[in-house]
Write a structure and sequence with these properties.
By secondary structure, the protein is α+β, with helices and mostly antiparallel strands. Helices cover about 55% and strands about 15% of the residues.
């Protein structure tokens, strides 16, 4: 049986298929290596090890390094022996110090180098690389909208939040929380999640998110309108039944046709004929019958007068 693909995985795998510029890709690599990379030395040689549980991301990073630097990394994988038995893929790059220097990565300092994020395309690349490395987003089927990137340094999390604010044409309001040994930069507003996905280039995921969100909102609006209609209908029928009782009292005591006020007389006839009419519908019908405009407030005034008339006749009707 094929495993179900999470929405997070859909977003990340879409990013691995995009035709990035070299500048964009360089910023993406800088973030990915800063978050998921480790630098080590052996026999006078430096190497970077990049780990991910997604084979497509590992392949994408492999080709990105080859494309930008002409360095062919090595692949390795290991299997965790817990109950999920996951594979972890490693992309191993020799000449690690050269990459670290060119991508201006400092594993200890939280600052993000200006040369790596000097325009919107590079900011988008950097943020996309961070999401590939340690990001996640709730499925849009869940109304609890949440997108986050997990980072290992508080200062770095603050700089990353500032970078989100720096991107033009969007209004992000990222928050930071500490979760165990990580610092989580997250956004929760649905429109900001959409803007984030669009910014990093995940067009298909953005459309899917928007379609599901809009469907849910329309459904919610429909339910509210239905509830409102039901409530309004209940109010109309309750008020109508009281008005009909008043009219019946007047009819028994006096007779509707003997009522001197023409508007009251016609309104009573309309109400008896249409017990489900709203005030506006009563106003429209009465306007047609008497040939002059009648407003909802006029109808209210006439109904109050009819009620007072019924109260006067109530004792005479048995």
């Amino acid at each position: 049986m094929q495993a179900k693909v999470s929405f997070t995985q859909k977003v990340k795998e879409e990013l691995t298929k995009l035709p990035f510029s070299d500048e964009h890709l360089r910023a993406l690599l800088s973030a990915f290596i800063r978050i998921n990379g480790s630098l080590s030395y052996s026999e006078g040689t430096s190497r970077i090890v990049l780990k991910t549980e997604n084979a497509k991301i590992a392949k994408f990073i492999y080709h990105a390094i080859d494309r930008l630097y002409g360095i062919v990394p090595r692949f390795a994988y290991s299997k965790t022996m817990n109950f999920k038995r996951r594979l972890t893929y490693s992309v191993i790059v020799n000449e690690g110090e050269y990459l670290i220097g060119d991508l201006e990565i400092d594993f200890l300092d939280g600052k993000i180098a200006k040369n790596i994020v000097k325009n919107d395309d590079m900011i988008s690349g950097y943020i996309g690389g961070a999401f590939l490395a340690s990001g996640s987003v709730n499925t849009p089927k869940n109304s609890n909208y949440h997108l986050e990137v997990s980072l290992n340094n508080e200062n770095y999390a603050k700089w990353f939040s500032k970078l989100l604010l720096k991107y033009k044409g969007t209004e992000f309001s990222p928050k930071i929380i500490k979760r165990r040994n990580s610092y989580i930069v997250y956004i929760k507003k649905s429109q900001q999640v959409v803007d984030f996905l669009s910014m990093v280039g995940a067009t298909n995921a953005t459309l899917e998110f928007e379609n599901i969100r809009i469907d849910r909102e329309f459904s919610s609006i429909g339910n509210r309108l239905q509830n409102l209609d039901s409530a309004n209908y209940s109010k109309i029928t309750s008020a109508s039944s009281k008005q009909i009782v008043d009219i019946q009292i007047i009819d028994k005591a006096l007779g509707i046709n003997n009522v001197q006020n023409e508007k009251q007389k016609e309104l009573m006839k309309i109400r008896l004929e249409h017990d489900d009419y709203s005030l506006q519908e009563l106003a429209n019908e009465l306007s047609d019958r008497i040939g002059e405009p009648v407003s909802k407030s006029n109808i209210n005034h006439l109904l109050r007068a009819i009620h007072l008339k019924a109260e006067r006749y109530k004792g005479a009707v048995k």
